[in-house]
C-alpha cells in the first residue's frame, strides 16, 4: 500500500429532526450575511424552503435560485457577483450535488477578481490558493457525495466543456436527513444510485497493489447500493433504504475509499463529454457507458479478468473457477441491475441520435483525464470512440 494523507473536516449531522434544533447555529456561527443557493421548485413544493427561511429569519438571506442539474458557469458568475456585492459571510446550499458543487465554487469565487471559469479551467490550481467562504448544506438527493468533499463539476455550454475543479475545503457542515429524499422522483433516485455505484467502481478498478482495506470497503458499499436502490424505487418512503443510499453516497466520495489509489476515473471522463455536448442526466450517461466500458476492457486487456471476477464473486456472489467466465457474468449482472432501475440503456434513447461529435468528445476525454496514461486500462481516442459507438445499440457487444 502506498503512502497517503487523509483529512476531512466536514461536520456531518445525520438523521431526522435536526434542522429545527441545529440549522440556525450551524449557519450563524459564520456570520449573518447568507447566500442561499438552491435549484428549482422542489424545495418549495416540499416545504423545505419555508422551513429554512423561517429558521433563519433573523439573518440576511440573499437568494440564488435556479442552479441547474449540470451546474453552468453563468450560475457561478451570478453567485460570484452576489457574494461580492452583498459581502457574504457563508453560503447555504440546499439541494443535491449540483447545488452543492456550485456553492463551493461560488464560495471561492468571492475572493477572485477574474472570471470564475478560470477557477474551473485550471482544475483548482488557483482555487486551492484562495480563501473559501464556509459552506453549509442541506442534502436532498443521495448521489454525488459533494456534501463531504472539496470537488465540483461545472459546465460551460459555450465551449462544450464539463470539468472538475477542487477547492481548499470541504463543506463546513452538512445536514443529511434521509427523509428529505422521500419525495425524490424515481428517475432521479435511479440516476443518483447509479452515480453512487459508478463512484465506487471508478475507485475499485485500480492498479494499486494489496490495497485490501480500501477494496473491501468499496465492495461493502457496492453491495449496499445494489441492495437498497431497488427498494427505494419500490418504497420511496422506506427510511432504511434512503438512509443507506445517502450514507453510501457520502462514503463513496469523501476520500476514505480512494486512499493509496493510483489510477484515474475513466467512465466519468467519458460521460462528462456526453453531458457537456448533450446535457443529459449524469447518472443516466454513467448507466449507459459503464457496462460497455467493462466489456471493452475485458476484451482489450485479458489481465482485467481477475479484477472483474473478484467484483463478480465479492459483490454479485457469483461462483466459478474460470475468471474470464465469471468476469463476463459480472458485467452481465451489472447491465441487468442498471436496466432494472428503469434506465434508458442506449444513447439514442436519451436523444443522441448520431455520432457527429464522438471524435471531438473522445479527444477531449482522453486529453482532460490523461486516459492514455492514467486510466485503469489506458484508452486511446479510438478506444473511447468504440465505447461510444457500442452505446448506440442494445445489449453488450
Automatic annotation (TrEMBL):
Provide GO CC annotations from the record: cytosol
Q: Which GO terms describe its molecular function?
A: alcohol dehydrogenase (NADP+) activity; butanol dehydrogenase (NAD+) activity; metal ion binding; methylglyoxal reductase (NADPH) (acetol producing) activity
Which keywords annotate this record? Oxidoreductase
Describe the location of the Fe-containing alcohol dehydrogenase-like C-terminal domain by residue ranges. Answer: 189-392
Domain Alcohol dehydrogenase iron-type/glycerol dehydrogenase GldA positions: 10-178
What superkingdom heads the lineage?
A: Bacteria
Enumerate the PANTHER family for this protein.
ALCOHOL DEHYDROGENASE YQHD (PTHR43633:SF1)
What is this protein called in UniProt?
A: Alcohol-acetaldehyde dehydrogenase
Amino acid at each position: 500500500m502506498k503512502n497517503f494523507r487523509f483529512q476531512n473536516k466536514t461536520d456531518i449531522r445525520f438523521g431526522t429532526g435536526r434542522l429545527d434544533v441545529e440549522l440556525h447555529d450551524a449557519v450563524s456561527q459564520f456570520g449573518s450575511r447568507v447566500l442561499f443557493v438552491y435549484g428549482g421548485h422542489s424545495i418549495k413544493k416540499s416545504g423545505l424552503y419555508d422551513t429554512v427561511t423561517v429558521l433563519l429569519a433573523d439573518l440576511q438571506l440573499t437568494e440564488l435560485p435556479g442552479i441547474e442539474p449540470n451546474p453552468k458557469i453563468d450560475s457561478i458568475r451570478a453567485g460570484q457577483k452576489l457574494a461580492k456585492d452583498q459581502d457574504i459571510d457563508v453560503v447555504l446550499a440546499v439541494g443535491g450535488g449540483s447545488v452543492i458543487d456550485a456553492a463551493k465554487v461560488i464560495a471561492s469565487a468571492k475572493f477572485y477578481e477574474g472570471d470564475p471559469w478560470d477557477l474551473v479551467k485550471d482544475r483548482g490550481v488557483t482555487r486551492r490558493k484562495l480563501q473559501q467562504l464556509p459552506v453549509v448544506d442541506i442534502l436532498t438527493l443521495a448521489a454525488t457525495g459533494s456534501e463531504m468533499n472539496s470537488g465540483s463539476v461545472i459546465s460551460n455550454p459555450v465551449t462544450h466543456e464539463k470539468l472538475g475543479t477542487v477547492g481548499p475545503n470541504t463543506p463546513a457542515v452538512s445536514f443529511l436527513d434521509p427523509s428529505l429524499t422521500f419525495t425524490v422522483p424515481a428517475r432521479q433516485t435511479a440516476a443518483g444510485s447509479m452515480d453512487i455505484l459508478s463512484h465506487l467502481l471508478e475507485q475499485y478498478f485500480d492498479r494499486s497493489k494489496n490495497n485490501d482495506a480500501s477494496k473491501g470497503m468499496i465492495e461493502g458499499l457496492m453491495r449496499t447500493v445494489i441492495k437498497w436502490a431497488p427498494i427505494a424505487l419500490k418504497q420511496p418512503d422506506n427510511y432504511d433504504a434512503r438512509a443507506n443510499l445517502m450514507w453510501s453516497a457520502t462514503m463513496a466520495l469523501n476520500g476514505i475509499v480512494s486512499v493509496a489509489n493510483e489510477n484515474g476515473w475513466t467512465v466519468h471522463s467519458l460521460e462528462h463529454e456526453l453531458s457537456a455536448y448533450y446535457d443529459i442526466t449524469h447518472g443516466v450517461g454513467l448507466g449507459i457507458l459503464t457496462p460497455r466500458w467493462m466489456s471493452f476492457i475485458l476484451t482489450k486487456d485479458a489481465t482485467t479478468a481477475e479484477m472483474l471476477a473478484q467484483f463478480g464473486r465479492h459483490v454479485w456472489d457469483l461462483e466459478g473457477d474460470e475468471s474470464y467466465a465469471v468476469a463476463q457474468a459480472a458485467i452481465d449482472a451489472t447491465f441487468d441491475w442498471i436496466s432494472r432501475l428503469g434506465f434508458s440503456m442506449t444513447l439514442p434513447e436519451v436523444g443522441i441520435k448520431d455520432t457527429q461529435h464522438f471524435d471531438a468528445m473522445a479527444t477531449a476525454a482522453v486529453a482532460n483525464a490523461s486516459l492514455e496514461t492514467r486510466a485503469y486500462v489506458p484508452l486511446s481516442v479510438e478506444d473511447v470512440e468504440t465505447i461510444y459507438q457500442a452505446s448506440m445499440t442494445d445489449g453488450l457487444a
